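User:
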Amino acid sequence: MIAGALLLFLSMNAAPVPDGQTIKERVRANWMKSEAALENYSCIAQNQTDELNADGSLKKRKSTTEEQFYVNGIEIDHTIARDGKPLSEAEAKKEQARVDKEVKKYSDPKEADKSRAKDEKQADLFLRALRFQNGRRDERDGRSLLVYDLRGDPAFHAKKLEERFAEALTGRIAIDEESSVPVEMRFETTRDVKLVGGLVGSLHKGFWLHIVQQRQPDGVWLTKTVEGSGDARALFFKARFAFREELGKCHLFSVDTQQKIGAPANKP
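Assistant: Predicted structure:
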């Protein structure tokens, strides 16, 4: 074990850290590669959304429990409970009909391709709008990570809502060096982001988002947690909110194995 750790340390420091543009290309090339393997996974997702008072205390909470699975690499979420209570018979029937419709839609490879193309476009936008700076190496669970600070690229000219949001971010990203998969991202908005020209509303400065992914025994990466908090304004109303989604009871199904997802790793 000591020898292995020493070899990892030496290899981490032997090669130069890739520059921001190079690592962007690696992430872009590998972003969607593991979609087919997602077909083997089924998870339970716990979602919680809090509306907060001005002092940060809880005003109202909503929660859902969902079964999460994949069809042709497209995530399908099947709600099975709301606010800790199972759906009523009528609600369950309506939800099952919706899920059946989604499954049928994405069982068509052409529809799945359209959805993936949209996801790839958004991922590409995110990468183009941000600069990866101050690259360095770190280590987690015996794997080498590449860690970069994130800043909005002043050369990027945002036009659409998604572009304005990405341009206004600052934060940090950790990337698994071997697979080029983002392991953890945390960022926040550095200024208010207007929605629909500011007429409908805006997302205020200080909104933050934290995403953690975890590698499974078969090499597939699953999003383990997504959480965030911030202030938003719509017309004459202002709201402070927080949300969190956490996956648990994830199972890998195959001919001869069934494994459970582990606990989320520590932050880089």
